[in-house]
Amino acid sequence: MRATPDAPGIEHHREPLGIGERRPRLSWTVSAPPDWRQSAYEIELSRDEGTSVTQVVCAVKVDVDSAGEKLG
Questions:
Q1: 47: nearest Cα among 15, 19, 69, 24
Q2: Sign (positive or negative) of CA dihedral 5, 9, 11, 12
């Protein structure tokens, strides 16, 4: 079994359309083997002008700063 991110949330909403936060906090869970531990994550943001990927070394999965550019 491999680790798979589940249940993404933005500012504690499952459907975050129109939340109004320019730099929203993100949360997720992970389905993984019992001995698996998160040590880092990546956030990929796609816009008309291109895609950016931010890598963060951190084990936190709840209310993390969305990092990178502000939205909107």
A1: 69
A2: negative
In the chain, how many domains are there?
1
**The pTM of the whole model exceeds 0.90:** no
Residue 70 lies in a domain: no
- Do residues 26 and 43 make contact, with C-beta atoms less than 8 angstroms apart? yes
For 27, the token pair is: 């949360």
Under 8 Å between Cβ of 27 and 33: no
- Which segments of the chain are extended strands (E)? 4-10, 25-31, 41-47, 50-56, 64-65
Domain with 54 in it: 4-65
Per-residue pLDDT for 72 more than 80? no
Residue 53 lies in a domain: yes
| pLDDT for 39 | 93
Q: Does residue 71 fall inside a structural domain? A: no
